[in-house]
């Protein structure tokens, strides 16, 4: 599936919050979002059960999210966005125990990316080094493994291709590269796009 993503001129910089359940999510204006593994999603008996499962997987509490939506990607992976529930908004004295903001330039942040998304070391470093890189309007192909292939919007020439997860850039190629080494670059793009995070996240979710 593909979609066009337009950047917002008033977009706020997200905070990266590490929750007590060991998951880290982007937070903007009290809403967190990301890709979460819910291995038993398809076995849920009702919509209410599914919503509780998603909230629990993302926050550690079945009531940890309110006013949230989701998109099922397949293989037990879902993309979600929701408002943080009151149970996660603790008193100041307890706030660090419930949610902790991580600095994107820190080693802890990089290691969390590797753990949560099953990234290679080189992918995590690339993501951290390019968090402030801005792109214009893009076409996004969402893959079932949670990764995305992004490029410019037609009819603009495809001057680059990048592989992302949760909007974080994991790899990037410009058109000069695939003109000069077509086979190598196409192989690298497919290799980066096909890496499966579902196995790693499922194992963590069931621990």
Task: Please state the CA-atom Rg, rounded to the nearest Å.
Answer: 18 Å
- As a percent range, the share of strand residues is 25-35%
- Secondary-structure class: alpha+beta
Low-confidence stretches: none
Strand order of the largest sheet: 5-6-4-3-2-7
Assembly state (oligomeric): single chain
Work out the count of structural domains.
1
Count of helical regions: 7
Helix content bin = 25-40%
Q: What gross morphology would you assign?
A: globular
* Secondary-structure element series: EEEEHEEHEHHEEEEHHH
Biggest sheet features: 6 strands, antiparallel
Provide mean pLDDT, rounded. 87
Ends: how far apart? 31 Å
How many individual β-strands? Answer: 11
Quick tags:
207 residues, alpha+beta, 6-stranded antiparallel β-sheet, 5-stranded antiparallel β-sheet, 11 strands, globular
Task: Explain what this protein looks like in three dimensions.
With 207 residues, the protein is α+β, with helices and mostly antiparallel strands. It has one domain (2-205). It is 31% helix and 32% strand. The protein has helices at residues 47-59, 95-98, 107-117, 121-129, 175-180, 182-194, 198-205, and strands at residues 2-5, 15-19, 24-28, 31-37, 65-74, 77-84, 99-101, 138-142, 147-152, 160-165, 168-174. The protein is globular. It starts with a strand and ends with a helix. The model has no long low-confidence stretch (mean pLDDT 87).
């Amino acid at each position: 599936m593909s979609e066009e993503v337009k950047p917002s001129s008033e977009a706020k910089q997200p905070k990266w919050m590490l929750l007590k359940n060991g998951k880290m999510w982007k937070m903007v204006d009290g809403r967190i979002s990301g890709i979460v593994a819910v291995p038993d999603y398809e076995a849920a008996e009702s919509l209410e059960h599914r919503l509780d499962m998603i909230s629990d997987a993302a926050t550690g509490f079945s009531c940890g999210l309110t006013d949230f939506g989701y998109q099922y990607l397949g293989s037990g992976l879902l993309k979600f966005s929701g408002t943080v529930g009151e149970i996660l908004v603790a008193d100041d004295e307890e706030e660090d125990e419930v949610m902790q903001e991580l600095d994107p330039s820190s080693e802890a942040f990089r290691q969390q990316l590797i753990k949560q998304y099953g990234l290679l070391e080189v992918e995590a470093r690339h993501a951290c080094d390019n968090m402030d890189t801005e792109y214009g309007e893009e076409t996004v192909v969402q893959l079932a493994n949670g990764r995305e292939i992004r490029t410019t919007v037609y009819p603009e020439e495809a001057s680059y291709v990048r592989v992302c997860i949760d909007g974080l850039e994991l790899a990037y190629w410009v058109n000069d590269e695939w003109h000069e080494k077509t086979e190598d670059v196409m192989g690298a793009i497919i290799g980066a796009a096909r890496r499966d995070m579902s196995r790693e996240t499922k194992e963590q979710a069931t621990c």
